[in-house]
Fold this protein.
Amino acid sequence: MRPIGIDLFAGAGGLSLGFENAGFEIAAAVEIDPIHCATHEFNFPLCKTICRSVSDVVGYELRRIAGIGERDIAVVFGGAPCQGFSMIGKRALDDPRNELVHHFVRIVLELQPAYFVFENVRGLTVGKQRQVLDEMIQAFGESDYRVCSPYEVLNAADFGVPQDRKRLFLLGARKGCDLPHYPEPLSERIAVLDAIGDLPEADKFPTLLKCDSTEAEFGSLSHYARRLRGIDNYPGDFGYRRNFDRGILTSSLRTVHTEK
């Protein structure tokens, strides 16, 4: 049986997919935007996607909707939108602009998972925004959790993603559980060409002026792209197989621009 994961602020499911590939069962996901919810539900049909604000959800309700009862939750993860500009002398987590960060902490404490992962922009580590992060760590420390210290800002480009994307990751463990370790960067980086070099030129397909998909012939695939598209299996990938037509070019609606 897979360990259970819960995704907060799920979006279309980027973090859900990563945790699924790592071997977790994503039992529930919370997302306020209905279009993102529909996308997440399509991408993760075995997950209960809840189209509501995290502020309107409580722990016991998440357990009920997900159908997991009192089973132990392995991890709660998410990246709360955060403005983080608190007035001097005011608690950052009490500031309405940081409400969603407060609710991330609240739900973790209600669900009592073995671990949590909080992801956010690296700007949260500097200036006034740092107060939000410090108070999060303090809130967890005053309850049943330990936080990995020092926290780290990781760049996706160092871990097999062809994108320079730096994000803060705050990791914590319930007391009695071993603290996790931050991963070491890979020795080589992936180029964008390795990921999308096989895509055909959209301008060659008049059909794409009327719809956003068409049958197409793709170029040769790199080793990375074959893994990305689910053609080659690789050790450590525990994600569910998705059935899709690899001969269809999708999400490629063309726009006719004026000369200007």
About this structure: The beta strands are 4-8, 25-30, 48-50, 75-78, 115-121, 145-147, 152-155, 166-174, 214-215, 248-249.
